[in-house]
Amino acid sequence: xxxxxxxxxxxxxxxxxxxxxxxxxxxxxxxxxxxxxxxxxxxxxxxxxxxxxxxxxxxxxxxxxxxxxxxxxxxxxxxxxxxxxxxxxxxxxxxxxxxxxxxxxxxxxxxxxxxxxxxxxxxxxxxxxxxxxxxxxxxxxxxxxxxxxxxxxxxxxxxxxxxxxxxxxxxxxxxxxxxxxxxxxxxxxxxxxxxxxxxxxxxxxxxxxxxxxxxxxxxxxxxxxxxxxxx
Length: 231
Ligand code: ADP
Ligand code: ADP
Description:
The chain is α/β, with parallel strands linked by helices and about 230 residues long. It is built from six helices and ten strands.
């Protein structure tokens, strides 16, 4: 069964048709990017997958179940675009931010399992941020913060990671190593990854598929493929 499946989904706000007849399949092991300019419906698509919006037509399935019946939230790690904007002046350390990802799983705030520290360390190692465990999150660069938020999402041991514009705030020099880290999660930690971005240039060659909303392109040299798309 696919991890995520959208079948002929339509979604419109009062006057705006945000998504029209969108079909998409995300299988185990995929590293998929959805690209599209601002206003093309990427956030709407993410909200449909998260069950925050209901399609007017079509179906959204998670692990073979209609999204409305899917209750195991821990299977899905989500890093929103807003994750790294709320924390300026936020006093929390990297340790506290990552540990807070466990609260989602247990539903209990301030009561963490005995091995919480081990779990935080393992999550930080998987994103290459173990050296920063005691730093205040606000002291880190955009790319480092993004890695910490990914670690927070990973601590509930999801099968799939949804990333909303993860490369915003990452400079060109750090982009390659950021994608290497994602590729490592994908191949060594068996994390299926779906990311959305407006930044075609930021899409790495390590990504296995790119979906341009309505059109799924299987590709190796993505730039050539993209140039062949009709406007
Ligand atoms: P993207 O994430 O690609 O920028 P969105 O999914 O946010 O695209 O938006 C798709 C379209 O739907 C846009 O035209 C946007 O203005 C519109 N839209 C998004 N959210 C709302 C909303 N809550 N009410 C009305 N229109 C909306
Ligand atoms: P995002 O792309 O993360 O949704 P935005 O800044 O585009 O962030 O939108 C912020 C909020 O406003 C979102 O919840 C979105 O659905 C809503 N929104 C976006 N476009 C419109 C619109 N044209 N009319 C009303 N609400 C909108």
